[in-house]
Amino acid sequence: MPFSLTENLPFLALPLALITLKVTYDVLPFMAFLALVAVAVGCYMFYAGKSSPAAQRTAKKAEATADSLIRELTREEDRAKEEAARKQAAKDRKAAAKQKQEAARKAAQAAKEAAAAKALAQQEAESKPRAAPPQQQQPSSGKSKKQSKKQSKAAPPVEEEDSDDEDDFLLRMADLERARREKGARK
């Protein structure tokens, strides 16, 4: 590195100050010498807090290096956060898909149960004896109106009675529906 006066000024300041003091003491009267020393001390105190230009450049380089290091660390942290966010999003998507599949499976199971209940209801309805509705005959032209009136009065329509089988079926259907709703409420 070549010699630079600005970089080496702090090292040269003390010998230069001593030489200047000796020369001024010999040449100037005592009061002028004291005035010059006071000015020199004032200048030193004024500039003592300031660093040299070389030190300023070195400090700027160090600061730039620290800034670039901090930026690099920040970039790495940001990359790590983005990667973690991507992984979390993938987990969330998988969980949502799993919940969707589970909901579809439960809906299919509920549909199967409903179909089974409907089939059971149809089977019970078919196995129950039905009362045939009375057939009303149209009055023929050969019969009188009085006879047709008597026939219609003679056979009143038979109403179906509520049987215990039908009550049991309705109770079972209500239990199945309640169980299905409880299962849906738990999820």
TrEMBL record:
<keyword id="KW-0472">Membrane</keyword>
<keyword id="KW-1133">Transmembrane helix</keyword>
<feature type="transmembrane region" description="Helical">
    <location>
        <begin position="27"/>
        <end position="47"/>
    </location>
</feature>
<feature type="compositionally biased region" description="Basic and acidic residues">
    <location>
        <begin position="72"/>
        <end position="105"/>
    </location>
</feature>
<feature type="compositionally biased region" description="Basic residues">
    <location>
        <begin position="143"/>
        <end position="152"/>
    </location>
</feature>
<feature type="compositionally biased region" description="Low complexity">
    <location>
        <begin position="106"/>
        <end position="124"/>
    </location>
</feature>
<feature type="compositionally biased region" description="Acidic residues">
    <location>
        <begin position="158"/>
        <end position="168"/>
    </location>
</feature>
<protein>
    <submittedName>
        <fullName>Uncharacterized protein</fullName>
    </submittedName>
</protein>
<keyword id="KW-0812">Transmembrane</keyword>
<feature type="compositionally biased region" description="Low complexity">
    <location>
        <begin position="133"/>
        <end position="142"/>
    </location>
</feature>
<feature type="region of interest" description="Disordered">
    <location>
        <begin position="72"/>
        <end position="173"/>
    </location>
</feature>
